[in-house]
Amino acid sequence: MRVGKIIKALSGFYYVYSDGQVFQCKGRGVFRKRKVTPLVGDEVTFEADNLEEGYIHSIGDRKNELVRPPIANVDQALIVTSAVQPAFNKLLLDRFLVLVEANHINPVLIFSKMDQLEPEKEAGIEASRQMYQKAGYQVILSSMEEQEALKEIKALLDDNITVIAGQSGVGKSSLLNALNPSLSIETNAISESLGRGKHTTRHVELFTIGTGLVADTPGFSSLEFQDIELEALPECFPEFREVQHLCKFRGCLHNKEPKCAVKENVKQGEIDQQRYDHYLLFLEEIQNRKPRY
């Protein structure tokens, strides 16, 4: 029996990396009976007489798993957001951050296409950078020519499984190609009429960059909060986590409750008003969510 990690899933086959080789494997029928699907990122035991006819026997415990994209055991997410086109969108960025935080994945923000930023918009992007850093996030300003930023991102990837997330057209595939030119991942220009890129990534696959593994994924195809409970939402905002122990009520939702430390910090400008407004929007969305049966 061998031990390895699934680095690609395609057409019912799982490609398992073990001891410097990749084995094409199938899952045993027992997984189907138990309704368990092996995922990219899974640590597995398998047997194989050759590189093309292996069988996966067992799947190790997962520390997390994402449904869309289907991947497990992710250490961090690089959330790429464009400074120019598609236009910088804080509401969408906060939505990505909540999904990543809810899955206990460490987020790093990358503001891409900084070299295309018009001078009159620089102050706005800089204010956003400072706000997210104050909230507790690492923010990297990046352009494809910016070697320092690429070096910083590469160092973050070492010894981690990383997903790259962000809306279509922000430059995720371009970033991967800049980090490792041998990947030659297909990229598509932004459609002028729609102002967004076309999806070019069809399946989940882990690529080696440095000593880390990076998922080129179709991105989060759903940004809905279907699996996030009301009480868990405040935990997805690090600046709330810092002060919520000072709220009068345990389990405070930082909405209508009196003597709420989060609301007090918003009032004093310590917590960004717009981030708090987005939180209230998400809170309402979860409250109004239709139950699934």
Automatic annotation (TrEMBL):
UniProt name for this protein: Small ribosomal subunit biogenesis GTPase RsgA
Keyword Hydrolase: yes
Cofactor binding: number and manner: Binds 1 zinc ion per subunit.
All residue ranges annotated as the CP-type G domain in the record: 63-223
Enzyme superclass (EC): hydrolase
EC number: 3.6.1.-
Cofactor requirement: Zn(2+)
Subunit composition and interactions: Monomer. Associates with 30S ribosomal subunit, binds 16S rRNA.
Role description: One of several proteins that assist in the late maturation steps of the functional core of the 30S ribosomal subunit. Helps release RbfA from mature subunits. May play a role in the assembly of ribosomal proteins into the subunit. Circularly permuted GTPase that catalyzes slow GTP hydrolysis, GTPase activity is stimulated by the 30S ribosomal subunit.
Organism phylogeny: Bacteria, Bacillati, Bacillota, Bacilli, Bacillales
SUPFAM superfamilies: Nucleic acid-binding proteins, P-loop containing nucleoside triphosphate hydrolases
Protein family according to the UniProt entry: Belongs to the TRAFAC class YlqF/YawG GTPase family. RsgA subfamily.
Signal peptide from the UniProt entry: none
Residue numbers binding Zn(2+): 247, 252, 254, 260
Entry binding sites for GTP: 112-115, 166-174
CDD domains: S1_YloQ_GTPase, YjeQ_EngC
Assigned keywords, A-Z: Cytoplasm, GTP-binding, Hydrolase, Metal-binding, Nucleotide-binding, Ribosome biogenesis, RNA-binding, rRNA-binding, Zinc
Keyword Glycoprotein: no
Domain EngC GTPase, residue spans: 72-221
Cell location: Cytoplasm
